[in-house]
Structures are given as structure tokens and as C-alpha cells.
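Per-record layout

source: Salinisphaera orenii YIM 95161
name: Dihydrolipoyl dehydrogenase
length: 479
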Amino acid sequence: MSKEFDVVVIGAGPAGYVAAIRAAQLGMDTACIDKWLDPDDKPSLGGTCLNAGCIPSKALLESSELFHRAQHEFADHGVQVDKVGLDLAAMQKRKSGVVSQLTGGIASLFKANGVTSFAGSGQVVDSGEVRYTDHEGKEDTFKAEHVIIASGSEPVALDIAPFDNDRIVDSWGALEFDEVPKKLGIIGAGYIGVELGSVWSRLGSEVTLLEAVDEFMPVADRDVAKEGLRSFRKQGLDIQLGARVTSAKANKKSVSVEYTQGDDSQKVSFDRLIVAVGRRPHTSNLFAKGAQVELDDKGYIDVNDNFRTSLPGVYAVGDVIGNPMLAHKGMEEGVTVAEILAGQKPHINYDVIPAVVYTAPEMAWVGKSEAQVKAAGNDYRIGQVPFAANGRAKALGQQGGFVKIIADADSDEILGVHMIGPYVSELVQEMVVAMEYRASSEDIARIVHGHPTLGETVHEAALAVDGRPIHFPPPKRKK
């Protein structure tokens, strides 16, 4: 016997659970179907982000950073620690506890907002019809005026390095190691690869990242990427650029990897190998044969400006519709589509979505890079100030990195902001707000920033756009 709802959401990751909650808040009878199972085969809401991505990785990044600082930095602060020991099992238990609390929190939010949750798989049969299959294989039919697809993405697999979930793993498997690999290889030096590499390097692994492209983090501003590469290599990460892996073979105790770099062929052996070469939209078994939903040439679901697919009454949000594959972007799309269904007129400004890499130092940016501004033909000015000039950064013992603000030469509107340094994941939010309201660098320069704070470096960079920083020497004027 079929069940009827106003809205059925397929997927309970950041885009899906937010869409379901917002739709329910707006008075729609809402159901959410999600198939994720935790390591104990129990249903767990939150998708990849909460279960196997954003949250567990950040928990391990924080724990590993504390371990590293206790070994190498506490003494500088006058904190004497005779012997620092690693209890990886306790670290993993804490990570799992953080995940459990947050996934359980979504279940509580569903209950509080009146969202009906179903554990299992959802398949679009036609407009207004979804086939639900629970984890025991029992099927049911859901009828709904609106269907929202938020099925997310999955790690890209490589035929040359097939996952065996032991020696060769994806990004989720890389968060579940029960011992620190002596030698760890990572294919891909994007934000996922560098974050995972940072975790295990701090805990004692000898980490090598093999990146196929010839430049480090091409999505980042070149100044930030250059500083990041220098910093990560100084920390001990062996980042090999232009390294194209040709094969990876696992045996009981190691992984043998072959790659080319220029005209040279290399062979290397690792205890574990992580494949972190990106993610692809998850659309397998998502549509019945009669459901005509158009995909683009990369497999993403095609949607219009209101997130409508080619099938009437069916919408899609989050990773499954394309880049940037960021949880916060998916969340905002989830809110937006729910409000569109309610007859409201929300908007998302895709030009000011922040990006963050949670390494140490952190990397963050919003808006256009200098190369993008230059390619667009804009005349621009730059203000760049290092954290070395900041009192709070010195007190923290984290003086590396800088803030770079790019502003239009004529209007002074801020076009892009790029940061690398302590807690820039938080600092960038000020500039997201500023750019949303089309602020100028002078606007930031005229705002009082607390002292001593890391945010003063943002203030100084804004002053530097006009060549008048106070706590850092101004650029030499041309005679």
C-alpha cells in the first residue's frame, strides 16, 4: 500500500536533510529516504559529510594536530611533557563519538520538525512516484507532489588501483586505520589528499602524495598554493607533482606502485595506499527505466535555475548536480529548493561560496583568484599582509601565512580574498559577508577590528590595498 507525502527527499546528506527539515518547517508533509549504514550496519543520517568525510576527518585533524603540538611545540610555551604517547584506538573512538552525536542530532531534528525518516534506498519511478526499498529488501511506493534528489557523490575509483578496503582504500577507509602506516601513499594532492596526508604524517607516517597535474592545488590562488606547498613539504609531506600512477598492486603486507614523472619511471612500495582523486555524482540505481531524467556529459543531473530536472515535479540539489562539491553549498541549495516549493523567491550567490582546506596552516578563499581577475581583463589592486605582523598569531606561535585581498582598481569592490594561516576557516567568513553586500576594501579598512585578534590581519590587508598598512611596511613607491 503506497504512502503519500507532499515532499519525498532521497538522501540525508547535508543537502538532503536540510531540504527535508526546511520543507517540513514550511508546512509540507515530508519524508526522507537514506541508505547509509555505519560500520555496525546501523542506519546513520548525515551522508558522506557527517559519516565519512567532513566531520570525522576534522576530528582526526584536530586530534593529530594536538599530538603533533605536544611533541614539537608545547615546550616552547613552557609546558613540559615527559613523554607523549599515541593511543590511536582512543583517538578513533573519540572521532566515532563525534560522528555519532551529530548523526543522532539529525534524527532528533527530523523528529522535532516532523520529518518521517526511512532507512533504505529510493528510486524515482516517475513524476510524483518513488520506489522505496528497505535494507531487508521489502519494497513500497511513495506518492509525492515533489521529489528532491540529494543522493550526493562517491569517491572516484581507478582501474589501475582497485579498492580492496585493506591495503588500497578510499577516503572513508583512510579514516578507519587501526594502526599508523609506516609508509603511506596517496594518489591525489587535492584538499582531501592533503588533509588525510596531514593526519597520518602528524601521527608518524612517512607520507608521499602523487599528483598527476604539474601544479599544486590549481583551484587555489597561486600565492596561497605556493605557500601551502612550501609549508606542507617543510612538515615532511613528500608531494610529487606531475606524477602519473600507472599501476598499483596490493599484496598481504604492502602495495607496489608504479608511476611516471616526466620521462622517468618510478617504483615505490607503501604499507597502505589512499586513492583521493576526486568524487563523482551518485546516480546508480537512482532512476527506474521509465524515468527520463537528463544527465550532463559528466554524469551530473541537469537542473534549471530553480533546481528542476527534466522530469516534472522532480528536483535535485547538492553534489549530484555538480561543483563545487561542498557541504555548505549543498545545504543552501536544500534550503533554497524547499523555499521555492513553498512559493518563496530565495537566491544563492555562487560567486561568494567559501572554500576551506583544514590543514595546518589552514587555507581558505572566496571569490576570484588573481589569475581569474587578470583573465577577465579587470584592472585591480592587491593588499597582502603576513600573519608574522600579527600579535595574536605570534602569541599562538603560528605566524606563517598571509591574507590577500584583491579589489577592483576603479570601484574598489572586493573581487577575491585568499588566506593561508591560523584559523582562516573562520576569518574568511567576514569576507563572505562583505562580498555578499559588495563591500569595498575601504569598507573593511574603516571597520574597527578587535585587538589583539587574527582578524586584524584582514584589516591590515584591506589597508594595504590602498598602500597604507599600519603594522606592516607599505610597498615601496615607484619614483
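summary: The first strand starts at residue 3 and ends at 10. Residues 88-113 form the longest helix (26 residues).
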